Amino acid sequence: MLSRPAMLLGGLLLGVATMIAAQRRGPEAAAQHQVHLVQSGPCSYTFVLPDPQPCPPGDPRSPDSLQRDVSPAAPSASLGAWRAQRVQQLEKALENSTLRLQKLERYIQMNLRSKLAWAQQHMVQNQTAAMLELGSNLLNETVARTSNVEAKVLNETSRVEVQMMETSLSTDELQKQLLQQSNELHRLQGRSSALETRLQALETQQQEDLASLREEKEQLRRLLGSHGGALAVLERSLRLASSNSSRLQMQQRQLLELVQRLVHVMAQGPGGSAAGERTAPMRAPEQVFQDCAEIHRSGATADGVYTIRVTNVSEPKKVFCGMESNGGGWTIIQRRVDGSEDFQRSWKEYKEGFGNPAGEYWLGNEAVHQLTSRATYSLRVELQDWEGQEAYAQYERFQLGSEAQLYRISLSGYNGSVGRQTGLFLQSANFSTRDADNDNCVCKCAQLMSGGWWFDACGLSNLNGAYYQNGQHLRRMDGVRWQYFRGPGYSLRATRMMIRPVGG
Ligand SMILES: *[C@@H]1O[C@H](CO)[C@@H](O)[C@H](O)[C@H]1NC(C)=O
Ligand SMILES: *[C@@H]1O[C@H](CO)[C@@H](O)[C@H](O)[C@H]1NC(C)=O
Ligand SMILES: *[C@@H]1O[C@H](CO)[C@@H](O)[C@H](O)[C@H]1NC(C)=O
Ligand SMILES: *[C@@H]1O[C@H](CO)[C@@H](O)[C@H](O)[C@H]1NC(C)=O
Ligand SMILES: *[C@@H]1O[C@H](CO)[C@@H](O)[C@H](O)[C@H]1NC(C)=O
Ligand SMILES: *[C@@H]1O[C@H](CO)[C@@H](O)[C@H](O)[C@H]1NC(C)=O
Ligand SMILES: *[C@@H]1O[C@H](CO)[C@@H](O)[C@H](O)[C@H]1NC(C)=O
Ligand SMILES: *[C@@H]1O[C@H](CO)[C@@H](O)[C@H](O)[C@H]1NC(C)=O
User: Fold this and answer.
1) DSSP state for residue 44 in the 8-state scheme
2) What is the largest CA-CA distance in the chain?
3) What is the reported pTM?
C-alpha cells in the first residue's frame, strides 16, 4: 500500500518529462531546427532550436544589416572582411543563443522544479484523498458490516445473557436447595452421631452392667453352694432340736396335768377358755408373747384369737392374729365387721381397749403405744365396701405416742391400692374422743364424726365412726369413712387395722 503512491509519483515524473519533451519537439522542428541536448544531473533534456536565418544583405530590419551597410564599398576586396564579420556576428549570436539557452535552462530548471514540487504535492494530496476516500469507504463498509455483525452478536449475546441469567437464577435456586439439603444432612448427621454416641454409651454401660451381673450371679452361685451346705447342717440340727422340744413339751404337758390336778384337788375350781381361743394350755405358763409376730414365729399359722402380754401393760390381752395372709404375724388392733360393738367410747376406754377380739374390738391405745415404742412397726389398713370391693393402705412406719403425747400418731412410707395419697396423716395428729378434744378444729370432731380417732380438722378418715347397715351407708359424715376409697360420705362395711414389726 505504501509503495503505491511512490510508484504513482515515479510514473507522474516520467509523464511530466515526456510532456515537456513533446512541447519542445515539433514534427517540423526535426528538419529545420537545431537539436541541443542538455544534461542536468540524472535527467537529460533535448532542446530543438530554429536555425539562424542568413540575413539578406541590405535587410534594414536585421541588426546585421547595419554591419553590412558599413562595408558594402569593396565587395570583392571586402568579401573576406564581410565573411570575417559574418563569423563574428554568428559567434556573438551563438554566444547570445548560448546565453539565452542557459537562461532558458535556468528558467526551465527553476520552473520544472517548482512544478515538480507542486505536482508532487498535488499528487500526494490527490492520492492521499483518494486513499482516504477508499479507506473511508472501506471503513464505512466495514463499519456497516461490523455494526450489522455487532448487532447480531449483541443480540445473540443478550439472548445468551438472558438465558444465562435464567440459568444462573435456576442455578441459584438449586444451590440454595442444595445448601438447605446439605444443612439438613449436617443436622441429621450431627443428631445421628449424638444418638450413636449415646447408643455406644448405653451399650458400654449395658456391657458393664452385664459383666457385674454375671459376677454377682457367680458370687450368688458360690454363696448358694456354701449356704446349701450350711442349710443342710441347720436342717439336721433343727430336726434334732424339734425332737428335743417335742420331748420337752411332753414333759411340760405331764407337769401341767400334774399341776392342774393339784389345783383341782386344792380349790375344786373349774378352768375354761373362751370360745375360739386357740391359746394352747400347755404354752401359757412358760411362753410369753408380746405380739402376733412372736406367736407366728413360734410356729402358729392359723388365724384366730391369741393371748399376748405387752410390757408395762398390767393385764394380758386377747387379740386376733392374722396369720394366714400377707406373710402372717399381724396383730389386729381394730376390727369392724357387723356393727355389733359400740364405738362411742370415752378416752379411758380407747386407752385400755374394748370389744370382743373374735368380733369387733379396739385393742387399746396404751398397748399399741407400748408395742410401737419397743420396735419399729408397720401398719396395714384393710377396707371393704358394701359392693364387695376391697382395698388396703400400708405404712412402712407407724408409731403411737404416749398418753402424755395424746397418743399422737406418726406414719410414713405409704403404699397401697387406694389412690396415691394416704387416708391418714403423714405428719401427725393427736387422738380425740368425745370427752377429749385434741383436734385442730374449733369444732369438736369426735362429737361431729363420732367415735375416737386421730382427727385433724376433721380429716379424711374415721374407721371408728358410727356403723351403718347396708342401704343406710350413703351420705354419712359420721360413718366408717376412708375418703380416698369410696369418698367422704360412704360408710364402709368392714375394716381392719393391723401392725407388725418391720422385718419380723
Ligand atoms: C546579443 O544580445 C544582446 C542582448 O541580449 C544584444 O544587445 C546584442 O545585439 C545581440 N547580439 C547579436 C549579434 O545578436
Ligand atoms: C487532482 O485532482 C483534481 C480534482 O480532484 C484534478 O483536477 C487534478 O487534475 C488532479 N491532479 C493530478 C495531478 O492528478
Ligand atoms: C459513509 O456512510 C454514511 C452513512 O452510512 C454516509 O453518510 C457517508 O457519506 C459515507 N461515506 C462514504 C465516504 O461513503
Ligand atoms: C434479536 O433477533 C431476533 C430474531 O433473531 C429479533 O426478534 C429480536 O428483535 C432481536 N433483538 C434485538 C435486540 O435486536
Ligand atoms: C437334745 O437333747 C439332748 C439331751 O436331751 C442334748 O444332748 C442335745 O444336744 C440336744 N440337741 C439339741 C440340738 O439341742
Ligand atoms: C415400762 O415401765 C417402766 C417402769 O414403770 C419404765 O421405766 C419403762 O420406761 C416403761 N417402758 C416403756 C416402754 O414405756
Ligand atoms: C408396695 O408394696 C409392695 C409389696 O409390699 C411392693 O412390691 C411395692 O414395691 C410397694 N410399692 C411402693 C411404691 O412402695
Ligand atoms: C398434739 O398435742 C401436742 C401437745 O401434747 C401439741 O403440741 C401438738 O401440736 C398436737 N399435734 C397436733 C397435730 O395437733
Assistant:
1) E
2) 252
3) 0.45
Q: What is the DSSP string of 239-307?
A: HHHHHHHHHHHHHHHHHHHHHHHHHHHHH-------TTB---TTTTTT---SSHHHHHHTT--S-EEEE
The pLDDT tens digits for 295-352 are: 999 999 999 999 999 999 888 999 999 999 899 999 999 999 999 999 999 999 999 9
Distances (CA, A) of 405 to 72, 399, 432: 208, 12, 12
CATH number at residue 349: 3.90.215.10
Q: What's 391-415 look like in SS3? A: EEEEEEEEEECCCCCCCCEEEEEEE
Q: Among the atoms of ligand 6, which is closest to the Cα of residue 402? A: 14
In terms of residue numbers, what domain contains 488? 292-501
Task: Give tens-digit pLDDT for 35-58.
Answer: 667 666 666 666 566 665 555 555
Q: How far away, in angstroms, is 108 Cα from ligand 1 center?
A: 21
Say how many domains are in the chain: 1
31 alpha carbon – ligand 1 mean position (Å): 26
Asked whether 354 and 333 are in contact (CB, 8 A), the reply is no
Nearest ligand 1 atom, CA 99: 5
**Which ligand gives the minimal distance to the CA of 430?**
8
Task: Name the 3-class secondary structure at 383.
Answer: strand
